[in-house]
Amino acid sequence: MSADTKSSDLAALTIAGARDALRKGEVTSVELTQACLSRIEGADALGAFVHKTPEIALERARAADDRLAKGDAPAMCGIPIGIKDLFCTEGVPSQAASRILEGFLPQYESTVSAKLRDAGSVMLGKLNMDEFAMGSSNETSVYGNAVNPWRRDGDDTALTPGGSSGGSASAVAADLCLGATGTDTGGSIRQPAAFTGITGLKPTYGRCSRWGVVAFASSLDQAGPMTKTVRDAAIMFGAMAGHDPKDSTSADLAVPDFEAMLTGDIKGKVIGLPREYRMDGMPAEIEKLWAEGADMLRDAGAEIRDISLPHTKYALPAYYVIAPAEASSNLARYDGVRYGHRATLAQGDGITEMYEKTRAEGFGPEVQRRVMVGTYVLSAGFYDAYYNRARKVRALIKRDFDQAFEAGVDAILTPTTPSAAFGLGEMTEADPVAMYLNDVFTVTVNLAGLPGIAVPTGTDAKGLPLGLQLIGRPWEEGELLNAAYALESAAGFVSKPAKWW
Amino acid sequence: MLDLSYESPAPKVIAGAKHDWELVIGLEVHAQIASKAKLFSGASTQFGAEPNSNVAFVDAAMPGMLPVINEFCVEQAVRTGLGLKAQINLRSAFDRKNYFYPDLPQGYQISQLYHPIVGEGEVLVNMAPGIARRVRIERIHMEQDAGKSIHDMDPTMSFVDLNRTGVALMEIVSRPDIRGPEEAAAYVVKLRQILRYLGTCDGNMQNGNLRADVNVSVCRPGDYEKYQETQDFSHLGTRCEIKNMNSMRFIQQAIDYEARRQIAILEDGGSVVQETRLYDPDKGETRSMRSKEEAHDYRYFPCPDLLPLEIEQGWVDDIQANLPELPDEKRARFVTEYGVTEYDADVLTADVESGHYFDEVAKGRDGKLAANWVINELFGRLKKEDHGIADSPVSAAQLGGILDLIAKGDISGKIAKDLFEIVYTEGGDPAQIVEDRGMRQVTDTGAIEAAVDKIIAENPAQVEKAKQNPKLAGWFVGQVMKATGGKANPKAVNEIVAAKLAG
Questions:
Q1: Which residues of A148-182 are buried (b: 16+ CB within 10 A; e: fewer)?
Q2: Which residues participate directly in catalysis (chain A) (predicted)?
Q3: How confident is the model at residue A1 (pLDDT cuts 50, 70, 90)?
Q4: Active-site positions of A?
């Protein structure tokens, strides 16, 4: 076996597989890490990693090997992963893919990345994303877009990996790392997971600490794992989750052993299919994928039930009021005063000019649009018409889900996205709302604070991966992962993108 | 509680060129919560630290940093609410007030607009014995302070000190129940007194730990009563807000100036523009800071980083049970328990320490005598040296000891003053000093009689004159006192001298 082949094989391991091999001594973390680093070196065309940290990676790999040798190794020990650029990592550039955070080196480590570090996992570097996690195609990044390792059959058009966690999705799908952190405000974990044929879990709001994660929309943001399999998601999620007194919205609940809950047994579980998610103009192949997913779960012993979530159609507009409103306030701190980018000022410029020029230069167009929308919906005279109404809609959407769960539904099955990955640049000229439609199946979950998981279950006519979403009861990610595990087992999706980069 | 009844003071009337005007005033007092740590971070609140040394990551609004409420500050706000006899809201919430300024790193201040922690309460503002204004409190909310911008250190740059950023404030909002400049200042004095009694704010105005925004409007006599009946603000004039006042004197001057400015505009046929103004103490005038049109749109919305604040009634009850005696109660008690005048009770309760001191001196003694000594001798002496009660070299126990010596007849009032001076300057146990220095009053009639006999024997001419004119007996008393070094009991000397001269 050539060194290259070995690298590829090691990097292609799942977290579970690597963990078992590490514990058995069949491979070392240093070997795994080097394998991933060499894959990353050859994958610049994917634009997935925006800051590489090989020294940190190898140092942590050696430390992990020591822990493994001592038999004191949690599941994530020695596992090479990537960290989305939205997470602040001590001494390592953390820019949220924005020019305005140019040169910013945090003096602190986000709780989630610290937990992963303390569990022994190996940070390979920081991953590309949409600027401030605002976008569904990774095209708003200051680093330039990440690229989907998948291509349409017989067509070398560069496709989006989705967004905002596009770099994370691309890196995991292309075997540059074994898993990656993502964040999900309106679908930013699940949509890119679906576009790249991987698994992405958005946990219940409050399950993973937001401390040290650059805020987009605080009441919606939630970190989660992006992995090659459902089992990997369970393992990695277990290391990320947990109460954090530094985040007042973090839940003080015990973290169960999620992996142990993956029995694949879903007999008697009730899976709801919400009729409102069957939208006009939905591509036939999405509809077919959805029906097939329902069949698979039925075959696995679940009861499939049609349900109604009547306020679904108001979710997207409510989301695009609430998220920009919070963002407009959260992003006010980027003012050029204390850190990051500051515009060069002209003679006579005062503080107002400093703000205006700094923010005009530092924020890209999509971020500027959302800051302006958010400022508008919160302004005097419009607050009730927009923000307050959106909050009421949000409460109704949550109630829809609550009622479904109270009626005995254990999980809800929907498509993850309305289409497969689209071409980079294809949406550039489109109305921004067309891009926002990517989130139509995912935003409800954020508005209601629920856990949701995207699982690849098939491909479209052109060979691109498609995924289904399962939505679970709050705090019952274990049950949700188990349902996803059953779906994954039944779907048997094992395709990998052919290496072209 | 012992309650005293009061009459409301008459509103201040300003005579305009055309007719009379009255003032309507409401205050928003910002009181820094006495806490070692900030409202949402563990950074220190110590005054006078090196610039930017008391700054946590969250205070500097570093990316991804989150606020966590300081429970101690919440307790202080609840204490304050209870001290103002106010409604405590078991559920309150934080909102963001958004605006850009370099000393506001987050770009928003976390405050409580929609659901404050404290609702309606009241403050009784004593104006004169038997006269007090009951000022209603609308609400108290908690909020973060901003940092400090320094514009005069460099010709081209401004500097920012974030030490104050995020320090906990209580904003105490009154209803427009205050009717004159003196009342406004007296309200702040009373509020500060209560806060100090509660220990929730040190009330230091020089350091900016207590500041007031003053809302002033003017109306014609009779209009205010219409407002009172209906609570309809349209009966009142348009108000202007004078920002950031940090002295009682300036508050009065600014209100007076502002009222006259508004009256001049109205009598000239103009109308008052609602705006924010600043008081310039050097020029003695207020000037426009920003008009209503230029006013910030703060885009308030619920802070998504903080869950609604829920507290339990049991916790509130515990705080209530441990409240100290407050000025109004203490004042009433001093009047009824010790028989001091209302005026003296005011002086004695002006601050916590004075009240404690007096209580200790007066307990089990003659209250009026105690009040007299504390106010006239002690406070007078302290004032001479610009000292406060906390610096008093005479402890309450020592002063009590002096009063006991007077009560027992061991020393006269005059000797007591000498003794007080010795204790004040040299310290020591009063009884011991009296003993050691032979200051004890002579009440032994035999000794006094001997002294009187001696004077009479030595001054036959004077005796003859005194027999003609009994008023001259005083000369003999004086001689006896002189001969005994002032220690003879004056009453006994008088009696004996009178008897001997008559005999």
A1: bbbbbeeeeeebbbbbbbbbbbbbbbbbbbbbbbb
A2: 84 (charge relay system), 164 (charge relay system), 188 (acyl-ester intermediate)
A3: very low
A4: 84, 164, 188
Given the candidates 1.20.1740, 1.10.10, 1.10.150, 1.25.10, the CATH classification of the domain at B445-502 is 1.10.10
The confidence score (pLDDT) of residue B503 equals 67
Residues of chain B in contact with residue A219, where contact means CB-CB under 8 angstroms, are: 304
User: Chain A residues contacting B, CB < 8 Å?
Assistant: 87-88, 94, 96, 101, 104, 106-108, 110, 210-215, 217-219, 245-249, 325-326, 328-329, 331-333, 335, 337-339, 351, 355, 375, 378-380, 383, 387
pLDDT digits (tens, 9 = 90+) for B176-208: 999 999 999 999 999 999 999 999 999 999 999
A200 within a domain of the structure (yes/no): yes
Phi, psi (deg, nearest 5) at residue A118: -65, -25
| A216's tokens | 């987009």
3-class DSSP state of B37: strand
Cα angle: A161, vertex A162, A167; to 5 degrees: 55
pLDDT of residue B4: 60
Residues of A in contact with B301 (CB under 8 A): 325-326, 329, 378, 383, 387
Contact A107 B297 (CB under 8 A): no
What confidence tens digit (pLDDT) does each residue in A189-235 have?
999 999 999 999 999 999 999 999 999 999 999 999 999 999 999 99
- Please tell me which of the candidates B160, B299, B307 has its beta carbon nearest to residue A379: B299
- Which amino acid type is present at position A462? K
- pTM of the shown model: 0.92
Whether residue A380 sits in one domain with residue A426: no
The residues spanned by each domain of chain B are 5-319, 324-436, 445-502
CA distance readout (Å), B288 to A315, B273, B282, B336: 46, 10, 16, 50
Backbone angles phi, psi at B459, to 5 degrees: -130, 65
Same domain, residue pair A37 and A88: yes
**Other C-beta atoms lying within 10 Å of the C-beta of residue B237:** 22
Å between A423 CA and nearest CA of chain B: 32
Over residues B102-135, the pLDDT tens digits come to: 999 999 999 999 999 999 999 999 999 889 999 9
Whether the Cβ atoms of residue B195 and residue B79 lie closer than 8 Å to each other? no
Indicate the pairing of strand A465-472 with strand A452-459.
antiparallel
- Assess contact for B347 and B373: CB atoms under 8 A: no
Q: If DSSP codes are grouped into helix, strand and coil, which group holds residue B204?
A: coil
Average pLDDT estimate for A264-278: 97
Q: Domain of A367?
A: 336-388
Please report, as a single letter, which amino acid is at residue B235: H
d(CA B146, CA B136): 28
Nearest in space to B278 (alpha carbons), one of B312, B303, B229, B243: B243
